[in-house]
Amino acid sequence: MAERVYKPFYHHLESPNAEAIKVRFWEKVEIGSPEDCWRWTAKANSKGYGFFKIASYHQVAAHRLSWAIHNRRDPGDLLTLHNCDNPQCVNPVHLRLGTDLDNMEDKMSRGRHRNGDRKGAKNGANKLDLATLAQVIAGFQIGLSNTEIANRLGVSHATISLIRLGKSWTEDSAKLGWKPKPKFKRAVSRPSGERGI
Ligand SMILES: [Zn+2]
Q: Which tens digits make up the pLDDT trace of 123-171?
C-alpha cells in the first residue's frame, strides 16, 4: 500500500540541458500521426509504462514527461492518464491529467465495454464474472459507494453490498485483496492497490 510520492521534474525542462533532454527522449519514441499511439521503445516496467532518466539521479515515467513537454508544465501530483488505454503510448494528444477516481472510472468503463462485448449489451444484472468482480473491488478500494459501483458496472446494489460484506464471492474477493471490514468500523480506505502512475 505504498503512497505515490510525487517528485517535481519540470525544472529539468527549464535547465540549459532541456533541448538535449528532449532530443534524447524523442529518440526513444516511434512517432506517428496524431491519431496513432507513439510507442516508447526504451526501458519499461512490467505493466508497459516507459521510464526515462531525465537526469543521472532522476527517473520519470515517459508518458508524464511527454505530457509535460507538450503542455509546458509539470503534471504535479495528478496522474497522467491514457485515453488510448495503451501504457506504452507517449503521444501527448492521447494523454490527460486526472485523479485516482478518474483512473478508476476509466478502468470501470473499459471493463464494462469488455463485458458488453462478451455477453451482449444487456447482460444479467446480477451475473458477475471475475473481471467485473475486480472492478467492484477496485471501486471499494478507492472509496466508491455501493450505489456508485452498481450504477457504473450495471450490477445490482444487493450484489455489490454482499461482496462488500464478504457474504458472496468471498474467496475470489480475498484473492483480489478485499477484506471486509468489521461492521462497527465504517472506515473507507483511501486509494491503494493498483493504479496508474
Ligand atoms: Zn496512444
A: 343 467 777 888 888 888 888 888 888 888 888 888 888 889 888 888 8
The ranges assigned to domains in the chain are: 10-98, 100-175
Q: Determine the distance separating the centroid of ligand 1 and the alpha carbon of 63, expressed in angstroms.
A: 10
CA-CA distance, 25 to 38, in Å (whole number)? 12
Kindly tell me the burial class for residue 163, based on how many C-beta atoms sit within 10 Å of its own C-beta (0-12, 13-18, 19 or more). buried
Compute, in angstroms, the gap from residue 124 CA to the centroid of ligand 1. 33
Residues paired with 89 in a beta bridge: 39
Q: For residue 97, how far is its CA from the centre of ligand 1 (angstroms)? A: 14
Is 101 in contact with 78 (CB distance < 8 Å)? no
Q: Which residues contact 175 (CB under 8 A, 6 or more apart)?
A: none
